[in-house]
Amino acid sequence: MSIPTPPMINLKATADSFHFPEKFIFLQGAEYPPTILGLQSHPTHGQLASRRALPTNGYFGQTVSSSRSTVSPIALGANHAQVWTASDQIFIEDTDSSFGTFINDERLGSGTPRPLKTGDILRLGIQLTRSSDTPENVTNEQLRPIIAKVILTGIPGAYV
């Protein structure tokens, strides 16, 4: 007898990503709201009381940069994208983010769900380029998007 595994998305940062701890996000059934992928804090409103970046949720927190300052990725929105499970699949949808959501370098249209599969490369945002207008206090780490290898479990056919 095997115990069914609930649907889960594992996000593992790639070398070019803004650094984040590996994530193991369990998804509830279709009758529950989607899981938000986004910043732990809101760029305008600051820290949101209900948000705390954990390895088991979709919020991405700050990290300590090479210059020892605490930084967040500029290209990641507070409510950047959402993921959910339905019909034995895990879907992702961009939520009208400023810098886009990409699967295997293909940009998703806002509001257009796309199924995920194991091995996909998820990118939240784009690599921003430093220019003469970039404030000096902005670190190179902050200019990086979130880039992660996707591993799915608890979904039939997730290992395609």
From TrEMBL:
Q: What are the top taxonomic ranks of the organism?
A: Eukaryota, Fungi, Dikarya, Basidiomycota, Agaricomycotina
Query: Origin organism of this chain?
Result: Dendrothele bispora (strain CBS 962.96)
User: What are the FHA domain coordinates in residue numbering?
Assistant: 58-108
Cited InterPro entries? FHA_dom, SMAD_FHA_dom_sf
Offer one Pfam family short name for this entry: FHA
Recorded protein name is FHA domain-containing protein
